[in-house]
Specification:
Rossmann fold, 7-stranded mixed β-sheet, 14 strands, VC0802-like, 11 helices, alpha/beta, 2 domains
Length: 386
Amino acid sequence: MDVFTLTAPCHFGLESVLKKEISDLGYEIDKVQDGRVSFKGDKDSVARSNVFLRTAERILISVGEFDAYTFEDLYQGTKSIPWENYIPKNGKFWVKKASTVKSKLFSSSDIQSIMKKAMVDRLSAKYGIKTFLEDGVELPVRVFINKDHVSVGLDSTGDSLHKRGYRKKQGAAPIAENLAAALIMLTPWKRDRILVDPFCGSGTFPIEAALMAANIAPGMNREFTAESWGHLVEKKSWYRAVDEAEDSIIKVPDCDIQGYDIDPAVISVARENAELAGVSDMIHFQERSVDKLSHSGKYGFIITNPPYGERLEEKAALPGIYRELGEAFKKLDTWSLYAISSYEDSERYIGRKSDKNRKIYNGMIQTRFYMFTGPKPPKRTSGGRI
């Protein structure tokens, strides 16, 4: 199979960021839907998209689509998919996850069992066998049913792409790595501009920014399920992707990235995570409260994930925290502030209305990404950081 249709799920509200990433990798966009972007690619694209995409959750090889209003429709539609093109005789195959939205079929466990039976029946007829040992390569299937339309894909990724491999430890309310990367991409920040996260926790925003600054591909140091799919994606595709990633790294990027937190224990965790990510020499972590936020540089960025008050005992502290953030930001008169929060009074206590805000789901929590934009820096006449 020379051309695949690949589907990359992402956080709701960030489809445009992922679309641009995929286009920048050189692939043709097929369609954009809520929480997913589909595109065309060859065998190498399976490896490259897994290794290089910062904002996707996983890469699915699309194998079939059909409408299903009943379980019989689901069975027949699944059985019509040419599974023999993807699953060898000894392959281990199962429906790992079934998700439904606004559809007549909504029982995930029933969907999984019926689809498995249809797959077995199809492959049994094609291979002329009744018992499958399933002792070969793993080929997990993921299903998404939206308004009775079924999309079926093979999961080439395995563990979600947000798991870069560097965050062995985390704070109390971590932000996913791919979400942090996408939010940074929604800002005008570039490696020659200052970035400070005053609520850095386990360091995700500073680390993701440093990975971008050094052009380190997020998936180059982890494993993927499809690496064992030699019948679909050759090993050399993965070798080429990693070689390309290594050749793209900027060895000593000039950048100013800082992370602060009031908790010394999480600052220690952030340093460990940055070390694992290979960017510890690019980030300055410091125990510091938000009211002590300051910087001598101009035209910098505060990009942060402040407390939301999801736990009842935190809610009383929120007005003071956001007020201190707003007061510190006000003193940095040429800076911009970007903050993701579900706290409805964020703007009130920061002390000004955001220039823009964007609805984004952080897991199951509906949040807003508040954008307080500062003045544009003067154009430079020579190289160097602003």
